[in-house]
Design a protein that fits this description.
Strand content: 15-25%
Oligomer: single chain
Shape: elongated
CATH architecture of the domain at 18-108: Single Sheet
Number of helices: 12
Strand order of the largest sheet: 2-8-5-4-3
């Protein structure tokens, strides 16, 4: 019988326990300093406090991207130690996280947190003036304590100034740099970020749902060709022993569509073959790139820009002053919309004609059945004798039925 000591020393009996207390698993940068901190900062778009990771000396500012299993395929995570120097008993210790969810630290540009400061929604008289950075920061009385810690951090000051130059016009005055917010510079910076996104490749879900499906030409028609089968039947006449070859051709029903191709007689062809409209635009690659660029810009605006700046950037992109000409993309999208409407109307007409054909066939069959019934009645009437016809004319309303004479007497 095993002793208590044997049970304890057996690593196979160490079963990880499930953690009931809600926990979160964060994956942080491998290179970080002792000054790194978790901070709660207002989201640039909504203003809601979210958790971020800030390292002023090494890697900068990070947001957390959640990676979790779906509700349709739930998963759990087993956490154990893999240190080979530990004892066997210690290596067996671990725990299970019931919910497979990881929060991965991904870099975020501090520029987005500076936008509500340099371009507030309620513009003041000093918003369009050149000002020192300290004056711009001091004018914000409602800055959160953690955001104030970032913008006034001495180790991170050079990064703040460099990102301010990316979205502001600058000038020198008395050995001091002054800043004024510029919508043009902000748009140029956003376009640079969007171009970097599409150069690395959009996620497969975005590429499938917003690029390929949007630019896919519609299915205009279905081609149906005749399927002709030639069968030679040899008939031997008993009287003269001559051989006669009779050719019988069975032809399948042909549906006329938008596009038909002629095939030589007697050659079997596929019954159905999809027909699509080819890319009309010669620069389909540039159109696809413009669409990817628009999708990337839309993602950045919705995720990181305050509502007032997002609306303003959208107005600039639609104006003649836009640095990107989206007219080829808009023309192609309008052309595809017209083709889809035409294809929908064509399919509706085909369905209507097919329905009418079925109704006509039903009507023809009903008329044929009525005609057959009338002819049968006429034949039956002609087959009756004269005596039977005369008997049918006799008034039998007052007469007893034949069955009355065969009833049992009561």
């Amino acid at each position: 019988m095993p002793t208590e000591e044997t049970k304890t020393s057996n690593p196979k009996r160490k079963i990880p326990q499930s953690v009931d207390v809600p926990t979160k698993t964060f994956i942080l940068p491998s290179k970080r300093s002792d000054a790194a901190r978790f901070l709660s900062l207002p989201n640039p778009t909504s203003g809601v406090l979210n958790r971020y990771f800030f390292d002023p000396e090494e890697t900068g500012l990070y947001e957390f991207t959640a990676v979790a299993s779906t509700q349709f395929a739930p998963r759990s995570i087993l956490f154990t130690s893999n240190n080979s120097n530990e004892k066997t008993e210690e290596r067996a210790k671990g725990y299970l996280a019931k919910k497979a969810e990881l929060f991965i630290a991904t870099p975020i540009d501090v520029l987005f947190f500076m936008l509500p400061i340099v371009a507030p929604a309620d513009k003041t008289s000093t918003s369009n003036m050149f000002q020192p950075l300290d004056d711009i920061l001091d004018s914000q009385d409602e800055l959160s304590a953690h955001l104030r810690y970032i913008v006034y951090n001495a180790s991170f000051r050079s990064t703040i100034e460099r990102r301010m130059q990316a979205i502001c016009d600058t000038m020198e005055a008395a050995d001091e740099k002054l800043y004024r917010f510029s919508e043009t510079k902000l748009l140029a910076e956003l376009i640079t970020k969007a171009a970097r996104m599409i150069a690395q490749g959009l996620p497969a879900s975005l590429e499938q749902n917003f690029i390929q499906k949007t630019l896919a030409p519609p299915l205009m028609s279905v081609k149906r060709e005749d399927t002709v089968t030639t069968t030679a039947t040899i008939i031997e006449h008993e009287e003269n022993q001559d051989l006669e070859v009779v050719e019988m051709q069975s032809t399948s029903t042909t549906t006329i569509s938008t596009t038909l191709s002629a095939e030589p007689s007697g050659v079997s062809t596929p019954a159905t073959q999809p027909s699509t409209v080819d890319e009309i635009s010669p620069s389909s690659g540039s159109v696809a790139r413009l669409l990817r660029l628009r999708i990337a810009l839309s993602f950045i605006k919705q995720s990181y820009l305050p509502p007032n700046l997002s609306t303003r950037i959208e107005e600039i992109l639609k104006s003649p002053e836009s640095p990107i000409d989206f007219k080829p993309l808009d023309d192609r999208l309008k052309e595809l919309a017209d083709l889809r409407a035409e294809a929908f109307a064509s399919r509706a007409m085909e369905d209507l004609s097919r329905k009418r054909g079925f109704e006509e066939e039903d009507g023809d069959s009903e008329r044929a059945a009525a005609k057959r019934k009338k002819e049968e009645e006429k034949k039956a009437k002609a087959a009756e004798s004269r005596g039977v016809r005369e008997l049918k004319k006799v008034n039998t309303s007052g007469m007893k039925k034949m069955s009355d004479f065969f009833k049992k007497k009561s």
